[in-house]
């Protein structure tokens, strides 16, 4: 019965997660020009263990996907009320499904998110991926293949004054230096000079949005 209760708690956690993020703080969005909803369900939900993420499968994965769709739809209604252009897409990861999220942006951040993930030279159809059932379940959505990249903000290194001890700064600096030697691409925007993201390829993902009706 313990295992059954555990999964019942997981279903409840997913339901509460969906409910909590249905509504968006538009004032916060206007200030930050961006907002996102990640899958905030761990650590006690049978999809993490010892700080290692266990990718959700079966019913958990299905319910989470339904939740992402529901959150997308709710936020689209709010964004439509603003009466101006916006970015709103579901980032659906294949291998790292737990990294999937709903992302929206307005004003200057729209272009930034449009180029956040690199386009492959030969796009893969989602029907040929590990999440091939998605188009059939959600025919109202269209999906664009991009590379799944881990984004690291190198500005977070900061300066020695940001650390309690200088050795902590050196340790962190060594980590960033080591990461910078790996193959990556740099994401920068001259309009936002404080941004210094480096993108490291991890796999594939699909950007989903509601299909546009023909005029």
Task: Summarize it.
This protein has 215 residues and is of the alpha+beta class.
Task: Give your account of this protein's structure.
The protein has 215 residues and is an alpha+beta fold. The chain is built from six helices and eight strands; from the N terminus they run ααβββαββααβαββ. It has helices at residues 2-20, 26-32, 58-80, 109-114, 134-137, 166-180, and strands at residues 34-38, 48-49, 52-53, 86-93, 101-106, 141-153, 185-187, 197-210. The strands form two sheets. Strands 1, 4, 5, 6, 7 and 8 form a six-stranded antiparallel beta sheet that branches. Strands 2-3 form a two-stranded antiparallel ribbon. Helix 1 (2-20) packs parallel to helix 3. The longest helix is centred in the N-terminal third of the chain and has 23 residues, at 58-80.
């Amino acid at each position: 019965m313990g295992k059954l209760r555990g999964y019942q708690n997981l279903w409840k956690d997913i339901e509460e997660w969906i409910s909590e993020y249905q509504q968006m703080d538009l004032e916060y969005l206007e200030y930050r020009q961006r907002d996102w909803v990640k899958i905030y369900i761990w650590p006690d939900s049978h999809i993490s263990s010892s700080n290692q993420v266990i990718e959700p499968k079966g019913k958990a994965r299905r319910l989470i996907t339904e939740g992402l769709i529901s959150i997308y739809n709710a936020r689209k209604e709010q964004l439509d009320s603003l009466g101006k252009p916006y970015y709103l897409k579901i980032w659906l990861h294949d291998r790292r499904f737990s990294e999937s999220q709903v992302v929206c942006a307005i004003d200057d951040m729209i272009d930034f998110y449009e180029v956040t993930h690199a386009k492959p030279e030969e796009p893969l159809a989602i029907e040929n991926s590990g999440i091939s059932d998605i188009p059939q379940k959600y025919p109202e959505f269209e999906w664009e293949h991009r590379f799944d990249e881990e984004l690291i903000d190198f500005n977070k290194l900061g300066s020695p004054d940001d650390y309690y001890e200088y050795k902590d700064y050196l340790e962190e600096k060594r980590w960033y230096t080591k990461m910078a030697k790996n193959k990556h691409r740099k994401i920068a925007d001259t309009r936002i000079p404080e941004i210094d993201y480096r993108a490291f390829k991890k796999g594939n993902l699909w950007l989903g949005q509601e299909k546009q009706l023909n005029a």
